Amino acid sequence: MLLLEHISTTAVVDHLRVKISPAVVADRLLASIACWRKARKQSFRFPRKKTLGKRKDYTKDYPISISMASLTGKIVLITGSSIGIGRESAFLFSREGCTLILTYCKDEKEAADAAEKCRTLGAPEAFVVRLDVTDDENILGAVKKISEKFDKIDILVNNAGVILWKPFKEQTFDEIQSQCRVNYEGLVKFTLACLPLVKETIINIASGAGKEAYPKLTTYCGTKFAVRGFTQALAQELKDIMVYCVNPRVTATRMTGFEGIHPSKVAEVIVNTAKGAYVLESGDDVDVWDYFDDAD
């Protein structure tokens, strides 16, 4: 209350001094309150399991930027982009006039189909490369192919991931290793391999399960908590590259049996993050549930 009283008093004095309209005073008050709310966001927690999908309107804590950068002509690399969130993100970036680099692990036809649609939607070019983030040689080979085709990557979206819903005591070593290597180790290694090419932005896709733990997602939660920590630490090291962590809730993809919000909603947040549509600092979390309800 003291803070609000101080803001109000300052605004009133300012109003008397320069004789601006009450409407402008009100706008300044709202802007000051928005900044105060943003400063409190570090204490915001992922909604408790029993209230997931019944959020309050937290969007006021994340003001929209006044100006957004054009993505036209940017080169965007998205891992795991033949299906799900990655595929939908590729389509939205294509509509922005970006050149796309799409990676797939198993299904080349799905990737080729996605690339063709990207071109139809406005991408000047859509380049497809196979990437297995669990294979060191494949990572280096994929980056070599990319570097032979492009001299830079403006935006890197680390989207590839796997999930396993299973009690921890029933998980096998192979299942644990798969989640750790794809979700965290592979993401870190691929980022390192691409780093000489990356010029502007790195967006890592983590999860709401990387902000609060859930049963039967024990290993998965661990990997996503790790991605968030990696994002924050990397942001402190890279001074000329913005690094963000986008955290979806349950999203309707193959991994979840197509339950949850549509992946296009997550893709919209990813593209807006790349455009600078939100007021963020490097290393920040971008929580998808602050912008879309489950019912959207």
Characteristics:
single chain, alpha/beta, Rossmann fold, 2 domains, 7-stranded parallel beta sheet, 8 helices, 44% helix, disordered N terminus
Q: What report would you give on this structure?
A:
The protein is α/β, with parallel strands linked by helices and 296 residues long. The protein has two domains: 2-35; 70-290, Rossmann fold (3-Layer(aba) Sandwich). It is 44% helix and 13% strand. It is built from eight helices and seven strands. It has helices at 2-18, 22-39, 84-95, 108-121, 136-149, 173-194, 218-237, 263-275; strands at 75-78, 99-104, 126-130, 153-158, 198-205, 242-247, 285-287. The chain has a seven-stranded parallel beta sheet, with helices on both faces. Helix 6 (173-194) runs parallel beside helix 7 (218-237). The longest helix is centred in the middle third of the chain and has 22 residues, at 173-194. The protein is globular and about 50 Å long. The protein starts with a helix and ends in a 9-residue tail after the last strand. The model is unreliable at 1-20 and 36-62 (pLDDT under 50).
What is the element string, with H for helices and E for strands?
HHEHEHEHEHEHEHE
Specify the biggest β-sheet. Answer: 7 strands, parallel
What's the CATH H-level superfamily name of the largest domain?
A: NAD(P)-binding Rossmann-like Domain
Q: Kindly give the count of domains.
A: 2
Helix/strand-derived category reads alpha/beta
